Amino acid sequence: MNPLIPYVPSSIISFILFLVVGILVGAAIKKAVVSAVLMILAGIIAAVAGLNILSFYTSAIIQHVPGILASASTHFGSIIDTFPIAFLIGLALGFWKG
Question: Which spans are transmembrane here (predicted)?
Fold first, then answer.
């Protein structure tokens, strides 16, 4: 081992990496949620203004949502078991501050 380079245990490094990745993913999820809400709001405003350009897509989206939610719910439990607590802390921090 090189005496000039301080020793940092790998567990600390992996904790920091999981925390940083969690913060980035949390911020990305927050931005995605805000974007989705703004898109829905824009569609509502367009419909009120008489620009009903989303009528073809609304029924298709509503038709596929139950299947998407069912698929996500079957895989969500196994994903949570593999996430370390550092990632979840980072995810919460990123969603809160992002």
Answer: 12-29, 36-56, 76-96
Nearest Cα to Cα of residue 25 among 79, 77, 74? 79
**Nearest-10 Cα torsion for 49, 50, 51, 54:** 110
Q: Where are the domains of the chain?
A: 12-97
Instruction: Show Cβ contacts of residue 83 under 8 Å, excluding neighbours closer than 6 positions.
Output: none
Produce one character per residue of 57-87: b if its CB has 16 or more CB atoms within 10 Å, e if not. Answer: eeeeeeeeeeeeeeeeeeeeeeeeeeeeebb
Which amino acid type is present at position 53?
I
pTM (predicted TM-score) = 0.57
Nearest CA-CA partner of 43 in 51, 35, 32, 31: 51
Q: What is the pLDDT of residues 55-89, one digit of tens each?
A: 556 666 778 778 877 877 777 666 665 667 777 88
Do residues 19 and 90 touch, judged by C-beta distance below 8 A? yes
